[in-house]
């Protein structure tokens, strides 16, 4: 990551006027609602992303896109601002939103239904999507708390494994 003019090196990123700049990857973005989440590359909790804080075209934002952004602490938790592509990155080609392919129900050799075992990352992504769809007024902190409890519960039942 290359610093911008006026930025000073800081542990885990760059610092300017009490705002930290970090790199991360878009975990989820709902263009209809205008918000989503970014997973910081240095770990930690996901950061809320709002369409008004984008410095790149909204159409180019999709899951997996690597971005740089400033982290601010808001009333509801961490919030990204000044969201842009890392220096030297080309503008991604916008793609239309594609729905995930439905999962096919699997059966064992006796015809008994089996369930998918997801990686923790897949499970977190699915749970985040479900929570945002079911209850859009949840804060990022509430989503992280609920999601964390669900992951622990699911790991205990063998529904999630590395």
From TrEMBL:
InterPro entries: Cold_shock_domain (IPR050181), CSD (IPR011129), CSP_DNA-bd (IPR002059), NA-bd_OB-fold (IPR012340). SMART domains: CSP (SM00357). Residues 21-85 form the CSD domain. Residues 89-100 have a biased composition (Basic and acidic residues). Residues 89-113 are annotated as: Disordered. This is Cold shock domain-containing protein. It comes from Streptomyces violaceolatus.
């Amino acid at each position: 990551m290359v610093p911008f003019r006026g930025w000073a090196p800081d542990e885990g990123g760059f610092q300017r006027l009490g705002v930290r700049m970090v790199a991360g990857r878009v975990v989820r973005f709902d263009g209809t609602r205008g918000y989503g989440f970014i997973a910081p590359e240095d770990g930690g909790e996901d950061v809320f992303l709002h369409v008004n804080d984008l410095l790149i075209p909204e159409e180019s934002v999709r899951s997996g896109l690597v971005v740089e952004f400033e982290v601010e602490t808001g009333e509801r938790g961490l919030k990204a601002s000044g969201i842009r592509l890392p220096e030297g990155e080309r503008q991604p080609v916008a793609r239309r939103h594609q729905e995930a392919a439905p999962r096919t129900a699997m059966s064992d050799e006796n015809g008994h239904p089996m369930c998918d075992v997801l990686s923790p990352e897949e499970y977190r992504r699915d749970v985040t999507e479900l929570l945002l769809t079911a209850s859009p007024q949840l804060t990022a902190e509430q989503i992280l708390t609920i999601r964390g409890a669900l992951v622990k519960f699911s790991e205990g039942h063998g529904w999630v494994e590395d």
